[in-house]
Write a structure and sequence with these properties.
By secondary structure, this protein is of the alpha+beta class. The protein has 2 domains: 13-165, dinb family like domain (Four Helix Bundle (Hemerythrin (Met), subunit A)), CATH 1.20.120.450; 183-268, 2-Layer Sandwich (Nonspecific Lipid-transfer Protein, Chain A), CATH 3.30.1050.10. The protein has helices at residues 13-27, 44-63, 77-92, 97-116, 139-161, 169-180, 183-186, 236-243, 249-255, 262-268, and strands spanning 197-203, 208-215, 218-222, 230-235, 257-260.
Amino acid sequence: MTIFGPVIDTRPLFPRERDAMLGLLGSLGPADWSKPTVCPGWDVHDIVGHVLNDHMRRLSGSRDGYGGAVFADDETLPAYVARVNEEFVRATRQLSPQVMIDLLGHLGRQLDALWATYDLEAPADLNVSWAATDVDSPAWLDIAREYTEFWVHQQQVRDAVSVPGADGPELVGPVLDVFARALPYALREEERPEGTAVRLEVTGPAGGRWSAVRRAGRWVMSPADAAPAALVTMDQDTFWRLATRGVTVERARERADMDGDPALAAAATTLLAVVA
């Protein structure tokens, strides 16, 4: 176990999530593709274009070793990500929905094959900045981050077109588990004595319990058995939306129960599992 907690192998979930996504997209009518989503300025077509970008970017970089876009002078990581995402989405507005569906099915299988070659505990191709900025990420966390990205964007499309699905515990549970690995980073500014614990409890069929504990001057993931100095409890829908800013921190706090050390509980509810 590392500071990130135990390994999560999300690789078997990619085909299942993708099948659900392709089934959803194939059922949409022409008007559905222009419906607005929670992502400012992006409609359903744009979200799908962004998911296509994720596939192409990972295959190009992780499989083919192609560097792609470079940082502009003094550009921060969030600014870089926002810029290149917007550039690609604008380009995909020239593509028909059927072309994008076909490409997602084709490239998704190639990505599955790529992930299958990885040693999950080897260093990641891309560090997960929302989990730590001073420690290299393991491959399993990088891959799991990609799974959560695909799943969340599918839910954003489903919300936009009012079609539920892909929300069973077998698909959602790993998303929550991965997002919980952002807890130590959310607490990073809070200095406390060795052994201080903060517990996150997520209710619902896919929920669970996670703890971050203060060890050797930093917060690390730890089994959720220590008596916590702060406890935050929220339902699973609120948690994943908080982690992706589908709801604001303030709204999530209204929906949550927060007990114990108020500063620690407040820090825990700033948890963010996307680059923003």
